[in-house]
């Protein structure tokens, strides 16, 4: 089977809600990433066969085909097609899977997998709230679905609480993990670990001056155990708080995927090889536990053990998810989210899959590792797993 390679991997630095990236239209922000990917690779923009753009809240400024609009806002010619996809939080990880599959099938040679989410300008849940205001039906969960699962709606917050209870994770363990995420992210930033993956974006300050947004805005280098412990739970008597959950974030990220033919034709140097792709579905009520069976299936398919993997990126949607994953897989905590995760760096929904992969590719190469594994929980009880081999 033909191979698929990652030849460029970039992301914006995360922006807080209402923060430094709030002035960026999401199509323009994603367009900057598309332009930078082809520039970094030194590829003719017209050679791109397709753009696959992940985005969760496809409403408002992210409606009307955000993928195509990102192409139109970039340096790519309008001859380059695009598609917008939604696999919830795994949208741009799935974009990578689709891009790799297109290359592995021999149908295409250069495909961009990307994602974007401006959670400031298009708040989480916007599509459902807009439908409700317009009186468009009963909502996404039909009476048949509600009857089958015994719920009126599916809540990721409830799912995170359920995972914490199932795996015996108390509030203190979640808070300790959250603090470590900030510490690792602050240390990585200070050491320049993100320099190769971050695409600086110009932002205008209150005084009208322009600076470059180079650093993830959500990191709290001064975070303390006491401050995290003082945050009230999201549900009465619960364990999940805003401090041990991922941060609302604005951002975009992308990966340029190439075939062996494209490597030769365009004189490209690959950063990593796509090794294994898996996506699974499970219980939509507990919802966020699915990365565990998905990881097991991916390792079996790859013929690898968890000990063979040098680094893991498990999205920190909520602290119980990576902690439960560690417990169930027996993975080494020292290899997990080594540069911090979404609790500190933010979770720009549709961009997070590509964002995590950009971090994994560069961290794996910087540390001289061979195999990296990325997974994330996704709405509806889904999970993607991607295993790469650094080159």
From TrEMBL:
Keyword terms: Acyltransferase, Transferase
Active site (UniProt): 89, 347, 377
Top EC class for this record: transferase
Protein's UniProt keywords contain Lipid biosynthesis: no
Domain Thiolase C-terminal: 268-389
InterPro entries the UniProt entry points to: Thiolase, Thiolase-like, Thiolase_C, Thiolase_CS, Thiolase_N
Protein name per the record: Acetyl-CoA C-acyltransferase
Protein family according to the UniProt entry: Belongs to the thiolase-like superfamily. Thiolase family.
Species assigned in the record: Rhodovastum atsumiense
GO molecular-function terms, A-Z: acetyl-CoA C-acyltransferase activity
Annotated CDD domains: thiolase
EC number: 2.3.1.16
One Pfam family in the UniProt entry: Thiolase_C
Residues annotated as domain Thiolase N-terminal: 5-260
PROSITE patterns in the record: THIOLASE_2
